[in-house]
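Researcher: I'd like a candidate sequence for this fold, 172 residues long. If you have to choose between options at a position, lean toward the conservative one.
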C-alpha cells in the first residue's frame, strides 16, 4: 500500500504562531521565552489532522520523536496509544538516523481514525528497510520486527529524495 500523504513537509501550515506571542491562540507570553518545538500542525492532503517535524539526524532524534508523539497524542486525547506509538516512532527514527543520509529526519503524525494514528518517518536514502533476523541475542536488527508487532500495518513510500517509512497504530 502506498501513501504519499504521510510524507513530512506537506505545505499549508495555517497554524503558525503570531509573532510576539507564545503560539497559544495568539496570547502574549508572560515569562521567559521558551524555545519552539521543531514540529507543528500541518494541513494533510487527506484532511486528517497532522503534525510534522524535522529533527537533526543524530542520537537525540529518537528522544525528540517520542516527545513529539506523546505531546500530539495528548492534544488528541489518545493516551492509550502513547506507549506503542512512541516505540514505533523511536524505532523508525533510529533506523533513519543509523541507515539514511542527509542532515535531518522528518516525521509526521497523522490522526487517521477515532483511535488510530499513522507515524511516518522520511529520510534521504532510497534504500528500503529490511526486517532483521530478530535474533534475541543481537544488539540491533529487531526494530522493524517491533514495528510490525505494534502496528496494524506498516510500509514504505518512495519519494523524490529518499523514502517515508510509515506505521499505523491503534484501532478504528
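Model: Candidate sequence:
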Amino acid at each position: 500500500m502506498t501513501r504519499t500523504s504521510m510524507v513530512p513537509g506537506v505545505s499549508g501550515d495555517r497554524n503558525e504562531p503570531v509573532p510576539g506571542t507564545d503560539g497559544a491562540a495568539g496570547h502574549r507570553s508572560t515569562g521567559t521565552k521558551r524555545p519552539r518545538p521543531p514540529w507543528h500542525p500541518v494541513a494533510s492532503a487527506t484532511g486528517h489532522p497532522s503534525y510534522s517535524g524535522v529533527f537533526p539526524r543524530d542520537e537525540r532524534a529518537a528522544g525528540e520523536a517520542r516527545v513529539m508523539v506523546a505531546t500530539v497524542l495528548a492534544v488528541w486525547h489518545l493516551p492509550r496509544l502513547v506507549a506503542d506509538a512512541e516505540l514505533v516512532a523511536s524505532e523508525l527514527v533510529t533506523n533513519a538516523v543509523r541507515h539514511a543520509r542527509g542532515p535531518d529526519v522528518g516525521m509526521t503524525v497523522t490522526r487517521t481514525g477515532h483511535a488510530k494514528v499513522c507515524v511516518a518517518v522520511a529520510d534521504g536514502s532510497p534504500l528500503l528497510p529490511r526486517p532483521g533476523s530478530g535474533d534475541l541475542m543481537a544488539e540491533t536488527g529487531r526494530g522493524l520486527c517491533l514495528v510490525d508487532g505494534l502496528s496494524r500495518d506498516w510500509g514504505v513510500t518512495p519519494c523524490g529524495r529518499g523514502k517515508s517509512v510509515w506505521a499505523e497504530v491503534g484501532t478504528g
